[in-house]
Amino acid sequence: MAKQTAERDGFDLAIVGGGIIGAGVARDASRRGLRTVLLEKNDFGAGTTSGSTRLIHGGLRYLEMLDFGLVRMDLRERETLLRIAPHLVKPLQFYLPYYDASWFYRAKMQIGLGLYDLLSYDKSLPNRGYLPAAEIASHEPALRRDGLSGASTYYDAQVNMPERLCMENVLDAARHGCVVRNGVEVTAAIHEEGRLAGIRVRNEAGEVEEIRARLICNTSGPWFDEVAARLQPEAPHRVRMTKGIHLAVEPLNREAWVLFSPVDRRLFFAIPWMGMSWLGTTDTDYRGDPADAAATPADVEYLLRSTEHYFPAVRKQALCFTNAGIRALVTRPGKESAVSRSHQLVDGERKGAPGLVSVVGGKITGYRAIAEETTDLIVKRLSEGIACDTASAPLPGAVRGDAVELCEREAVEAGIPRESARALLPFYGARLRELASLCREDPSLTACIHPDYPELRAQVRLAVEREYCRNLDDFLARRTTLAFSPDQGGKAVETVAALMGARLGWDADESRRQRARWEAYLGRTSPAPGA
User: Fold this and answer.
1) What residues are paired with 228 via a beta bridge?
2) For residue 345, which of 80, 103, 136, 456 sits 20 to 30 Å off, Cα-Cα?
3) H or E stretch at 208
4) pLDDT tens, position by position, 221-253
5) Structurally, how many domains does the chain consist of?
6) Where are the alpha helices (DSSP H) in 85-131?
7) What's 132's domain CATH number?
8) Long-range CB pairs of 350-356, under 8 A, 24+ apart, other chains included
9) Are residues 14 and 156 both part of a single domain?
10) What are the tens digits of pLDDT across the range 179-192?
11) Model pTM greater than 0.90?
């Protein structure tokens, strides 16, 4: 009833952009009692969120940029996410090797790691350490030995699926009254009495509607300037887009490594991920539609060349797929990798756009703090809303301790194969109980989508009915990990398409359109894009 009233009478807040920051604002605002609607053109987490390095970290290299405020905020938020999303965010030990390193270089790194520990004074993770070269062989047999004198160690965290972190924020927002819609594009603003009073949107069927709101929040990431131009005449250019790519290769390394490219001395990572090695990232200016971003042969060669300096066997490992994302950075001059990752909050009341609040830039790690700062401003402008609680309130799937084992046992008792229950528990956390409930209602849903994957038929129903899943690529790449298996879920595509089509009423034309969307996704993530 509250949702129907809000849609009829208007919202307090309309959020444009359903990436991790937009989802975070939706969660925060809804929990504070604001009537909120979240609008996404494509799918939640389909843009910058899905193109990330999949780390929750303060960022060692930002210390060299003297961006201490950013590092401190992200280290604090790293601890928060370990607490409110323990099923998705896990501690990860990193190794930083020393090859023919001067005393000055080693001292500089030790000082940096010491400062990293100091800035994370409230952490639960271990402090830095050191491993001599003689001990590294047992940890990392594939690492080049020539010139290696040892490695420093430190801890950060990893999120295998930031898409799920985004989705859990969306789900929690919806539980607190937020109206959630994907597949809708903002086309124009509604202005009344010199201020924004709402927006016009168009859905995938081409239908146009008006959405009234007291405030509009632009969190559209790399699409920021495009959206801003539709909301505010003569909006200034605020976003600098840079592209980062990653490679998923057959398992190469056992540990997570922080490395410096011999090509240009840029920092990059080699990380164990989903049974593969995750290599990246790059940082190059980008122009064009962010949705079309893909790795080029030159991008791939750069990362392979950079990696083989440390792991000579990398070219013998199969390249499973690539991944590309566009960062939305605050526009500043300078080399791409030297531009700050700090966000900027723009208050339209002070910048000639009453009724508009905008968020530019930001990292996944700090999304919750950015959302809190943004919602604080929104509450101030609306003169209503309670205090923020998102730093202490667990996300829907949060589970730890004895409850983890209980969730697995309940799933098995509902007929879910034990292997699937164990594989899906780090993905759904406490929400595994929702899958178990569906399986008790319909035992046929306990069957795996394909024998080679742990994913269940029940996941299709859950995604369609409770997770706003509308397209084949939504399910394969963001509601499950199927797109991130070595074969990108190839054996599951036809079954998933049939199950989704039956639930969503796809006709022959829509089924063809869905397969074309999926082929386009595969084209963008091909091991040899542009070749």
Assistant:
1) none
2) 80
3) strand 208-218
4) 999 999 999 998 888 899 999 999 999 999 999
5) 3
6) 103-119
7) 3.30.9.10
8) 352/232, 353/196, 353/231, 353/232, 353/235, 354/194, 354/195, 354/196, 355/195, 355/196, 355/197, 355/214, 355/215, 355/216, 356/196, 356/215, 356/216, 356/217, 356/218, 356/231, 356/232
9) no
10) 999 999 999 999 99
11) yes
